[in-house]
Input
Amino acid sequence: MTLPAFVFVTIILLRFFSQFNIKTLKAFQDFYPDDLSHCYGCGRNNTHGHHLKSYWDGDHTFARFTPEPWHIAIPGFVYGGLIASLIDCHGIGSAAAAVYRAENRKMDSQPPVRFVTASLKVDFLAPTPAGETLELNGEIVEIGVKKVIVDISVSAAGIKCAQGRVIAVKIPEDMLPKRLG
Output
């Protein structure tokens, strides 16, 4: 007796996603209101952006990103500015998710919790090979009243290539779109 194809595919997908301990398949960034979804790194409304997607994995956060051929510094290696922007966006998304979680709120509840970067520190530990999917892992270090600190590591092919720290601050009122602010 053979299983119908859709059952087989469903089993494969469940096994694949179970390794990530994903509680929801909806990314943090998918909860952002449309008025706050224009970021080059993660905004769904930016047609030219990276569209980074971040998720919970237990108490840590993760994202994956596959650089395009033009994201190079020299042939065979990823441009460091891309790595920095991914750390930045994953850190900001992780900060927002951490506050929602700490306040026991749903990520689509109002008012929206959004952050901007106050500080970004990146250490490049090894050359990042092109052609590999990058794995970003975040650890929430501190949640304060107005700021969140997130440490991010970036790995390619199992090698830790970069680590960074993002200090995220709640978005100032004058930066919010008028209808939300």
